[in-house]
Design a protein that fits this description.
It is a single chain. Strands 2-1-5-3-4 form a five-stranded mixed β-sheet. A five-stranded antiparallel β-sheet has the order 9-10-15-11-12. Strands 16, 17, 18, 19 and 20 form a five-stranded antiparallel β-sheet that branches. The protein is built from 19 helices and 20 strands. The mean pLDDT is 94. Bound molecules: flavin-adenine dinucleotide and FE2/S2 (inorganic) cluster (2 copies).
């Protein structure tokens, strides 16, 4: 893309730079601004070495969020406060975060350390007295390959003792928060359009029919970098107001497609409606990724193993889509996918929101994911079980499984009378019979036979969980 002026605050100081808005922030920092504190390890969101913190005004006030700068395009800095490790402390004046890591021997080679510092900065600037579960969630996306995590955990414990955000956010960075409001909040150029209303979206779709639709860019960012190709035009749907709400309506809970997954999995209304979605905070990607990755992106990357896709397919959710003429249509998620990475979505159609029908009495949705890491990993298989129980009878039981076919597939497991009290051996037989129906591939996440075995295990685990017999596992 052509270079354009982009205005933001960098470590508290206002900057207007001329840059290609699709350039990666890690490259801007390291190669052009010579700020090499931010490191680049994996280049695809996995290691956390490149973590920076982005500050902006949200409904709750000024919020700092950790983000992987290897997946963050410079265009997304417009109107934000970017904080890097250089802004938190320097060699002559280390911050209390850096001191705690040194005090507790949480550093050896130091390559991962700036990323840990920035994840700590994002956590402690928002929540000075987190518990250790909050700390673990904040560090999900940070890998250390030489020191290990004990010293880093102890550093967190030391910081919990500080009990104040003033000590975490340097005055120079804090003082720019109000000035951030005076900057235009996002880009609108001939090559990068950010529609806010449906009318603006329709105009953008009509004027730029070949533009790449972008949301959190956690999927697209990896593929742009791997292929060495960047789009010439983008329509950024992340500010669409129709896609940024969570609302209960007559037909169910409406969740905006442009909302970041981290906001969704922490939202009280969502958790009351479909508690299973809360599991994604521990099992999907990392804090840095969920802070920007959207629900719409998770559904529309059309991965056969998307975590939200599996849960929402099982919950019989629908998606509301709009086209360039403003025409709306609602599609059932179970029939939305037509093949590997293929959907019923037509060119120029955008997913606006997801609608989740209410759970009926006795209905539960259970989610399981088996992968090589507990978070920050795509699953070998994932599955969600939808069971309705009346008294002791199972009156409905379906299971949606990802990772065993080109799309998420849903099977009806209730082909005979079933009760919560049937012997586990009978459920094992149902699991084995289901595993014989799937034809998975072998790849780096597991062989076909391993995946088949997992299918059988998931069926039994869901049953034990949903029948309240989990202790027999
Ligand atoms: C390190 C890492 C770990 C990950 N771990 C997981 C994981 O554990 N589980 C998992 O499921 N995924 C995981 N992912 C994949 C990814 O983060 C998610 O799928 C994410 O939700 C994608 O959302 P996004 O907003 O970043 O999408 P983008 O990258 O912006 O877009 C993805 C696709 O969706 C399209 N799109 C986006 N929004 C819309 C819309 N509203 N309407 C129509 N099309 C749209 C885009 O055009 C693009 O084709 C991981 C990714 C990374 C980098
Ligand atoms: S370089 Fe590894 S997450 Fe960005
Ligand atoms: S200190 Fe060397 S990788 Fe963490």
């Amino acid at each position: 893309m052509h270079k354009i002026p982009i205005s933001f605050f960098l470590n508290g100081e206002k900057k207007t730079i001329l840059a290609d808005p699709m350039q990666r922030t890690v490259d801007l920092l390291r190669s052009e601004l010579e700020m090499t504190g931010t490191k680049e390890g994996c280049s695809d969101g996995d290691c956390g070495a490149c973590t920076v913190s982005i500050g902006s005004w949200e409904e709750s006030g000024f919020v700092y969020r950790s983000v992987a700068s290897c997946l963050l395009p410079v265009g997304r800095l417009q109107g934000k406060s970017l904080v890097t490790v250089e802004g938190v402390g320097n060699q002559t004046a280390l911050s209390c975060i850096q001191k705690a890591i040194i005090d507790k021997h949480g550093v050896q080679c130091g390559f991962c350390s700036p990323g840990f510092v920035m994840s700590f900065f994002s956590l402690f600037s928002m929540n000075p007295i987190p518990d250790m579960k909050d700390v673990e969630i904040a560090l999900q996306g940070n890998i250390c390959r030489c020191t290990g995590y004990e010293g880093i955990r102890k550093a967190a414990e030391q910081m919990i003792g500080y009990q104040g955000t003033e000590i975490i956010v340097p005055p120079s960075i804090r003082s720019c928060q109000n000035a951030v409001k005076n900057l235009s909040q996002f880009l609108n150029t001939e090559e990068w359009r950010t529609p806010v209303t449906i009318d603006e979206l329709c105009v953008a779709l009509q004027q730029m029919p070949d533009a790449q639709i972008i949301s959190g860019l956690t999927d697209l960012g990896v593929s742009f970098h791997t292929k060495g190709e960047r789009p010439l035009q983008v329509i950024d749907v992340i500010q669409l107001e129709e896609s940024r709400r969570i609302e209960i309506k007559e037909d169910g809970l409406h969740i905006g497609a442009a909302l970041p997954l981290e906001s969704i999995v922490l939202d009280r209304t969502v958790l009351n409606w479909l508690p299973t979605l809360g599991q994604l905070q521990l099992q999907m990607a990392s804090k840095q990724i969920r802070n920007v990755a959207t629900l719409g992106g998770n559904l529309c990357n059309a991965s056969p193993i998307g975590d939200a896709t599996v849960i929402l397919s099982s919950a019989n959710a629908t998606v509301l889509v709009v086209n360039a003429k403003g025409k709306l249509r609602e599609l059932n998620l179970t029939s939305f996918y037509t093949g590997y990475k293929q959907m019923q979505l037509e060119k120029g159609e955008i997913v606006l929101e997801v609608i989740i029908p209410p759970l009926q009495a006795g209905q539960t949705i259970s989610f399981l994911k088996t992968g090589k890491r507990s978070s920050v990993d795509i699953a070998s298989i994932n599955s969600a079980s939808n069971m309705v129980v009346q008294g002791k009878d199972i009156v409905h039981w379906t299971i949606s499984i990802g990772g065993v076919a080109p799309t998420v597939v849903t099977f009806d497991l209730k082909d005979k009378d079933l009760s919560l009290e049937i012997p586990v051996e009978e459920i094992e037989a149902i699991g084995t019979s289901l595993s014989e129906k799937v034809v998975p591939l072998s790849d780096i996440r597991g062989s076909a036979s391993y995946r088949k075995a997992l299918v059988a295990n998931h069926v039994v685990s869901h049953f034990l969980k949903q029948s309240g017999r989990e202790e027999t596992l």
